[in-house]
Amino acid sequence: MLSTVLDPDLRVPVVTDSTRRQFLAVLGAAGLLAGCSSTAGTGPAGPATRTVQHPLGTAEVPVAPARVVALDRRAALPHLLALGITPVGALTYESIIGTPFPPVVADRAAGVAVLPTGGGADDPDVEAVAVLRPDLVIGWTSGIEEQYAALSRVAPTVAVDVDFTDAAVGLRAIAAAVGREAEAERVIGAFAERRAARFTELGDIGTVSVVLGIGGGQFRVYTPTGSSVARWVAEAGGSVVPTLAEATGEPYGDEHVLIGPESLGQVTGDTVVVMFNTGDAGEAALAELEGSPLWTGLPAVRAGRVVRINSQESVGSYGFQGYDSVLDSLVDQWAAFGRSPGGRP
């Protein structure tokens, strides 16, 4: 397995020329550069392929890909693991969450090579991808668009669109690329059943506000259209407030309204769900929200009915493994409040 020949010090983002050369030298010494040699195509014919259409074109993908590379930090790695495929390499999440891979899948990804970025957080290093000799590359459409042609010369490359309100969109797209549609439907169905069962523990949900601090004195107030958690609440019988028509602020389509600290008074839900991002910036934004002058006067805050959940998990960036985690965190905290505002346990 590739990870056994990598120096542990190289399992972190490689962003400089010197460390990239070191990364390639180690792989070359281990005999893993053959995929980049001029003789790479002289062996036996490859396995049968099928045509996969995707947002950036079409790709002739092996019927049973064995060396898959995941090039995005928006759930390609968790989705592949959920489908029963362990990729040979995946793009690092380091600059976003401070660790190579999401904690909810770190154990299962222990043998996956941590691929460096080529610059920005979503920019793949094509050279590092090539040394892994992939037979399929999967990545977020916007993240790989500029490098798509170069990646396609390395291996068949499939772009996947992401819906930050529904992880099923990305999972189904990846399942279609690897021929595991049935597995995807089982994952989606199992989560839907578990979600329904867990929400029954909450009784009458009442009114709920879903908020995220993004820094700079700005907060997002979400609608069910813009947040998976807000949608779950609405589908379980709760009322998400304020509605788009009631909210005062700068709307972003029908997904959320951007407000400042002076407008926090409209967060009137019986329960407030606060989403926060991992890392220093996320913690600072959370502190800014909860330190705002109007915060302590909100009905849910006065009643002690505030739930805090990880935003990256809730938007599907950690796949259905993250959904499972955020669902449990949400319900466990909420259930600890005791009776709902409506009076029914």
What share of the residues lie within helices? 25-40%
Rg to the nearest angstrom? 22 Å
The number of helical segments is 13
Q: Cα distance, first to last residue?
A: 52 Å
**Unreliable sequence segments:** 1-43
Overall number of strands: 14
InterPro entries: ABC_transptr_periplasmic_BD, Bact_iron-sidero_bind, TAT_signal
Protein name: Iron-siderophore ABC transporter substrate-binding protein
Subcellular location: Cell envelope
Family: Belongs to the bacterial solute-binding protein 8 family.
Topology (SSEs and partners):
Layout: H1 17-29, E1 49-54, E2 57-62, E3 68-71, H2 76-82, E4 89-91, H3 94-97, E5 113-115, H4 126-130, E6 136-140, H5 141-144, H6 148-154, E7 157-160, H7 167-178, H8 181-199, E8 207-215, E9 218-222, H9 228-235, E10 239-240, E11 250-252, E12 256-259, E13 271-276, H10 280-290, H11 299-302, E14 306-310, H12 311-314, H13 319-335
Parallel strand pairs: 3-4, 3-6, 4-5, 6-7, 8-10, 8-13, 13-14
Antiparallel strand pairs: 1-2, 8-9, 9-12, 11-12
Helix pairs in contact: 7-8, 8-13
Report on the structure:
The chain has 345 residues and is α/β, with parallel strands linked by helices. The chain has 13 helices and 14 strands. The chain has helices spanning 17-29, 76-82, 94-97, 126-130, 141-144, 148-154, 167-178, 181-199, 228-235, 280-290, 299-302, 311-314, 319-335; strands at 49-54, 57-62, 68-71, 89-91, 113-115, 136-140, 157-160, 207-215, 218-222, 239-240, 250-252, 256-259, 271-276, 306-310. Strands 8, 9, 10, 11, 12, 13 and 14 form a 7-stranded mixed beta sheet that branches. Helix 8 (181-199) packs parallel to helix 13 (319-335). It is elongated. The protein starts with 16 loop residues before the first helix and ends in a 10-residue tail after the last helix. It is found in: Cell envelope. It holds the Pfam family Peripla_BP_2. Belongs to the bacterial solute-binding protein 8 family. This is Iron-siderophore ABC transporter substrate-binding protein. It comes from Pseudonocardia yuanmonensis.
